[in-house]
Amino acid sequence: QRAARALFSSSATSTTRASESSTRRRLKRHTNNGSTKVGVLATTASIAFGCCYRFVSMASSSSSQSFTEYNSPPPFVVETTTGNCDKSIIFLHGLGDTGRGWSDIPNQSALGEIKNCRWIFPNAPVIPITLNGGMSMPGWFDMNALERESLIDDKGMIEKASRYVDSLVEEEIKKGVLAKNIVVGGFSQGGAIALTHAMTSAHDIGGYIGLSTYLPMADSYSKEKKGVKVFQAHGTADAVLRFDYGTSSSEKLKSLGMDVQFKSYGGMAHSACAEELDDLKDFLNGKVFS
To answer: Is 259 a known active-site residue?
Structure first.
């Protein structure tokens, strides 16, 4: 069990093992002074929230077939529903993780309170990562460094991953979900793809989530995106993607007219915490699905 998701590891084997879902997951609960309290979250949403939590499938669908490398395995799909799903959240994992690694989040956090929602957890292709000595692991794009002044954005892979996300959005629309009820988000590398999608997609969806992340190629964007809703969250003690990466990205988004809610968590490293997911639930229920 672990309190946080280790996204940058010196070993693809150890990273993958660390990201496998556990039966009971511990998430840090932060206090205002930066200290932490740890609590075990409920193992089933029916116990915690009185709703149905259902693992649906890992089947791929036709519109994403041109993105073959993203479908091995295809996305995990989880539904919190008492009927038909009228909301969809597409959430992308970070470097070295998998969709399975995040698929228990609706179950083991306050996000399970969002009813009739389909969660889609895609899997990144396995690619060589320069930062990890060329070792292959699941990644949405290559990274050569963590320092922004040294990092060369992998434009081709970043934009292709964003187009893949667009295909997933289109699948949900074909299933009858209104665009305004679709959210794209992610953690770390996954969040970088989500924010890129916000910059490049023609679809006017409900909103975006960026956890412990940054906007790649930020200087290349100048088109106004007025009113696009974004929830960003970052730990002040993040030593992987520093806190100022998140704040500078937030300022860039705001400069383009986006409606950004930025939350900081004192003492949190490159990880997720229970308060963060509580705040995310309030954002989704209050600003997107209201």
So the answer is: no
